[in-house]
Amino acid sequence: MNFLHDIGKYFLMIKISFSKSCKREILYKQIFKEINDLVLDSIQIVSILSFFIGGVVSIQMALSLENPLLSKTLIGYATRESVILEFAPTFISIIMAGKVGSYITSSIGTMRVTEQIDALEVMGINSLNYLVFPKIIAMLLYPFVITISMFLGIVGGLLAISLTGVPSEAYIQGIQMDFESYHVTYSYIKTLVFSFVLATVPSFHGYYMKGGALDVGKASTQSFYWTSIIIIILNYIITQLLLA
Amino acid sequence: MIEVKNILKSFENSDVLKEIETIFYRGKTNLIIGQSGSGKTVLLKCLLGLYEVDSGEIIYDGVSSKKMNSDEKLDISRQMGMVFQGSALFDSMNVLENVRFPLDMLTKIDENEKNSRAMKFIERVNLKDAINKLPSELSGGMQKRVAIARAIVMNPKYLFCDEPNSGLDPKTAIVIDQLIQEITKEYNITTIINSHDMNSVIEIGENIVFLKEGYKIWQGNNKEVLKSRNKEVEDFVYSSELLKKLRN
Ligand SMILES: Nc1ncnc2c1ncn2[C@@H]1O[C@H](COP(=O)(O)OP(=O)(O)OP(=O)(O)O)[C@@H](O)[C@H]1O
Ligand SMILES: [Mg+2]
Question: Do residue B177 and residue B227 come from a single domain?
Fold first, then answer.
């Protein structure tokens, strides 16, 4: 019952954040700020993670493809597929649920606790439009982060595999093999859905939180819990719909 | 003028405001006093429209909260200024940006005029030297003053202050009280102040509403409050034994 109530409240929150808009130049300013905080600030950690995980994936692929009858190009092929299909869009999004998500929940939650949101509402400002809408828009650039992740994951795979002695030509040939552009489409559809979840679910947890400074931390934890679960379930549903 | 007609407000398991009936006058500093937990902040938030009342109505200069649609509500709320108990300054903005914020958000006037209007109110609260500081770099008292400047920068018709001088030294508190009173007269604002500071009650209590456990127990002005024979009011006003002795 409570759960259904919260789902309703969540969709209402999204509806309100798109209505009664603040002045345009104010929103532009907010959007640029959010692009910086949510997207640009995430590139570094995503790059490091992607590069090394790509390396690990390709080494593990090489390990399971040691049979001399199997072509070494399969290593590049398999690394590319797992990075594009799953690792970059889903795994990185779960990590972002921790990084971006807890940042959003704690910053909005602090504003709630210190009555800054009340202050906005009293001024006659639609606080959801001012705080949440720019985050949704900024996160439209999130696929850009995932593109970097895909690229660096594959490059990481290449470097790691070269160090183990497999000729890099085979790997490069592999990553060009049987290229299915639909897989990339699928991956970006997922990414866009996740970017919406990453912007809105943590906002919901921050905006409607109750209590004091201590509860901001609890709300962030709750927010990570729900954001990651929702991402994993949606991942399953989208995969079922688009690939099965 | 704000008329409050028989409002009730409760949260999940407790009734916080019970049958409150009163009037807050225009051009006067109206005080809501009472012990901690008596419902002052909740009453203020009901008047502000932040909380929906369970029953009864609030009439803002003839316009009833019952008959308002959401546009009219927005209209009324744009005529309100509020000083929150914890100041509620935006912590990523400096003093000038905080005070200018309502002008940025809600008006179309040009940059220079925004700055000069904001500066006028910043000077009024004596913070000219701190305009570039962030709220975290200010003392609690200075934060309060920024909050006051921000609340009046839009020339509101209604001004609400939730314990505006908690955290200020007694001298500054009186300066702030007097500043609020001057502004109230100058712009003919309906000002409503939550307080449990007896200094303010005596200094600026032109119309005092006394709350206890969610009920309005007494109403009157600062001269009457000192002479009141109401047991609860006496207890509140002469809370220390020394004052009681001085009185007798
Ligand atoms: N959002 C809320 N949910 C549930 N109960 C609340 C809420 N806000 C206030 N209360 C309860 O209402 C009562 C009155 O609280 P209120 O904040 O109005 O007191 P106050 O008179 O402003 O006290 P203080 O002088 O300490 O600020 C308290 O018992 C409080 O627990
Ligand atoms: Mg209070």
Answer: yes
